[in-house]
Write a structure and sequence with these properties.
Layout: H1 2-21, E1 25-28, E2 38-45, E3 48-56, E4 91-94, E5 97-98, E6 103-110, E7 115-125, E8 128-134, E9 141-149, H2 154-157
Antiparallel strand pairs: 1-2, 1-9, 2-3, 3-4, 4-6, 5-6, 6-7, 7-8, 8-9
Length: about 160
């Protein structure tokens, strides 16, 4: 009986570890008006998570922009020294810790607005996660559902800067 109970605890630990790692990989975000959709790669960083933009639906400035045809940069960043960073390759998820059910105490940076929000990441299934960005309390925020993709579209994979 002890062996059976011990096996159950070990099995439960393996399932928990799988949930923890379920958010690792490539995730398609909902489109925004400025950049369209994006793909974010979420990786383990120490005990936490990090996520960077690895694909943009609209990676170049449109013809009516002063920088037409050039790769988009972090123009809305509140720090003027960071406004020349390329959006493609930009780390937007940082500082998360696993609480047993979801990733909490992290931050998400929104390059469209230049704002950084507190955030949680919750795995819903193998192919879906919920990212909640908020100010103050999670009650005052917005949730996005991201869907898993297996690989980057060929059109931009060569443009991606190395981490």
């Amino acid at each position: 009986m002890k062996r059976f109970v011990g096996s159950l605890w070990l099995f439960a630990g393996v399932l928990g570890a799988g949930e923890r790692e379920a958010v690792l990989g490539l995730w398609h975000t909902p489109p925004d008006a400025k950049n369209g959709a994006a793909i974010v790669e979420i990786r383990q960083k120490g005990e936490g998570l990090s996520g960077r933009i690895v694909w943009l639906e609209k990676p170049l400035y449109p013809p009516d922009h002063p920088a037409a045809g050039k790769p988009k940069v972090d123009l809305e960043n509140p720090n003027p020294r960071l406004r020349t960073r390329p959006i493609l390759g930009l780390e937007i998820l940082t500082g998360f810790r696993w609480d047993g059910k979801k990733w909490v105490d992290g931050e998400v940076y929104d390059p469209v607005s230049g704002n950084t929000y507190r955030a949680t990441v919750t795995p819903e299934s193998h192919d879906r996660l919920r990212l909640r960005g908020y100010v103050g309390m999670p009650l005052f925020g917005r949730t996005e559902v991201w869907t898993r993709v297996e690989r980057l579209p060929e059109s931009q994979s060569a443009l991606l800067p190395s981490p």
